[in-house]
Write a structure and sequence with these properties.
alpha/beta, TIM Barrel, 41% helix, 17% strand, globular
Length: 274
């Protein structure tokens, strides 16, 4: 327990206009042990044409498994973000993501509360989130899949806010996917927050934030899609690693950056700290 593995979120190949399988091979070539694919509902033009990395959950889940087996790489989880405050979107999407994860071999599905409806109150939003998470947890528990709640949006941008969402459903399937960059940009202390949630941690988004982005956005936003290369920004990765070594289970650092070159520098930096 407390072992750390290094993976990469598939957003690192978004700008290359390449399909999922290409991204998996590239991740393995760079030395990553894990990948975190993005999945979507229905069909999407760019993905179907081979210009985007996201995988449709209408595809055979073994498409992901076969690609990882060929590349000699494993799955840390699925990027299955959906707006939990909108059950008409999230309920069936997240349940399908759990079933898809179980068949392709991903132990975690990651999500957040997403953009809220314009007309609901905070209290109503938490009832809606409780409904979605209850339905999803009922599917996840028998399959031993974890649902990783990420600090990213209006309610989860603080320690208290993420705690409240986590506590909505009493289920062993509910955990925390901590995002170092989002927590920092929201204005919180990412290290204190990571210590606070370490007993619920099931996955970690290793996102660094450049000094320029920090100066421009910290305290003004709740998160960002990708960061800079790990080691180029403000996050103290040695400190993050030290905290995660005390976690009760093994944790994968899934690097969230925007380019292949950043992914290459990220893995070199993180490995140097081990």
């Amino acid at each position: 327990m407390g072992n750390i593995g290094f993976g990469v979120n598939m957003e690192f190949v978004r700008l290359d206009d390449k399909p999922f399988e290409w991204g998996v091979e590239k991740a393995a070539e760079l030395g990553y042990e894990y990948v975190e694919p993005m999945v979507h509902w229905g069909r999407e033009l760019l993905s179907e044409a081979g210009y985007f990395h996201s995988v449709s959950m209408l595809d055979d889940p073994w498409r992901i498994r076969r690609a990882c087996d060929r590349a000699g790489i494993r799955l840390s989880g699925l990027s299955s973000h959906c707006p939990l405050c909108k059950p008409e979107i999230s309920t069936e999407y997240l349940k399908q993501a759990v079933r898809f994860a179980a068949e392709c071999g991903a132990p975690v599905v990651n999500t957040d509360e997403g953009v809220k409806p314009t007309w609901t109150t905070e209290a109503e939003d938490h009832v809606l989130m409780r409904y979605v998470l209850t339905e999803a947890a009922a599917v996840a528990e028998p399959r031993d899949i974890k649902i990783g709640l990420e600090p990213h949006q209006q309610y989860s941008k603080t320690i208290v806010g993420l705690d409240r969402i986590y506590a909505l459903v009493d289920s062993p399937a509910i955990g925390i996917n901590f995002d170092t960059g989002n927590s920092y940009l929201a204005g919180e202390d990412p290290y204190a927050w990571l210590v606070h949630v370490k007993d619920q941690l099931v996955h970690l988004h290793a996102k660094d934030i450049s000094v320029e982005q920090s100066d421009l956005e910290r305290g003004k936003v709740t998160g960002t899609p990708v960061g800079c290369a790990c080691g180029d920004g403000v996050i103290d990765w040695a400190r993050v690693i030290e905290i995660c070594r005390s976690v009760r289970q093994d944790i994968v650092f899934s690097v969230e950056c925007g380019t292949v070159e950043q992914a290459e520098r990220s893995i070199k930096h993180l490995r140097s700290l081990l």
